[in-house]
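Batch job 17 of 40 flagged for manual review because the log was empty.
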Amino acid sequence: MELAISILLGFIFGVIACWVFWLYLRWQRPKVAIASKVSMTKDAATGKHIVRFKILNKGKNQVIGITFKAWVCDLLEVPGGKISRALYIFPISNSETATLTPERQTSRPWGLTPEQIYRSEPEFDVMELLSHSNQRILVTLRVSDAVSGTTVVQQVTYCKEDVIDGHFEFGESLEIVPTSTERK
């Protein structure tokens, strides 16, 4: 009888310990914000559009394992509803060593920063594609917390009105400073 009670208590404490650890991991998950707007400028030398996306670590731990992808997508009617379909891929290079430091712990100019800007020079006309009401820019971000290893994936979509002619502000701001009032 004593052995059965010991086994039962061990099982109960094991379940409670797993549950507490799961709550701790949820609390430790990375908190990375994706800018609500997209920056677009024109390269004076080549005439190509340069598209920029910005992310910011708002958590208290370093963020590692960052993967950032962007597409121009449309909605496809399928039996049972609609799904998104990638039409064009933004050429964005991801680094395996990209790391974001916790917010307000910047070590500029050579150290880690809490923000990252992803730059792309697409071979397609982004604004022309977004002029169709059925098409959007779809961004997927995957990040991991450096302490707990917890991984989060998030997606954001942008329409034509979300693409601003300008540059992102320096530092921990996700705002865009417009270069002009009219799109070139």
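Reviewer: the log was empty due to a logging misconfiguration, but the result itself is present. Residues 165 and 180 are 7 Å apart (CA to CA). Unflagging and moving on to job 18.
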